[in-house]
Amino acid sequence: MLYRIITIDGPAGAGKTTVSKLLAKKLGCVRVDTGALYRGVAHEIKKQKIMWQDDAALKAFLSRLDLTFVLKKEEFRLISSGKDITPHIRTPEITMLASVTSARPAVRSALLDLQRRIASQQDAVFEGRDMGTVVFPDAKVKFFLFADLEVRARRRYEEMPDPAKDLFQVQAEMAARDTNDAQRVQAPLKPAPDAIHIDSSHLTARQVVDEMLRHL
Q1: How many beta carbons lie within 10 A of that of residue 48, not counting itself?
Q2: Going residue by residue through the chain (216 aa), what tens digit of pLDDT does each one get?
Q3: All domains of the chain, ordered by start, with CATH?
Q4: Euclidean distance between CA atoms 30 and 144, whole angstroms
């Protein structure tokens, strides 16, 4: 049996998370937040004090890593070795660590297998940065969601619970991550040649989903 895979790639703050949730609900299929997987790896690297620049240490760590998604109260939670780490993977520190460690070949290989295993079992909307270019290059429908940096930074700023948050710092960190993601050797952030581009700068999440549904 062939399953329908829809990919949504794009930079941080473009709205991929909200849009992918809404689209999956509309289509009646699962939604896989691949960014959460990489953040989960980064969280465990920090927690276990792994020397991730050391390939041997990194591979040993990945061989015993146990990450999975569990559906709780209509939300997918990221579980690591039986513990829910979802509340801890969205901090600026983990975000930046996920950006640099996700470029390591060993990390990408380990999570590539996991993502494709999920896709082999059901229809799914996959959200990430290289879903349409590397993980599922043969997907029939690929979207690339983007927005102006200022808009993306404001969105992320408003999501952050930290009372000491600073908009200019958020924008600077986002710009740095954009550069890291675009220039890395392994699976850089870029649209697939056949991706459908959608600018979400002045659209609500529901308007973006409506645009995607028109293409579908």
Answers
A1: 10
A2: 456 899 999 998 899 989 999 998 899 888 888 888 999 999 999 999 999 999 999 999 999 998 877 767 767 788 999 999 999 998 989 999 998 998 899 998 989 887 888 788 888 899 988 899 999 999 999 999 999 999 999 988 888 877 767 899 999 999 998 888 888 777 788 999 999 999 999 999 999 999 999 998
A3: 5-215 (3.40.50.300)
A4: 19
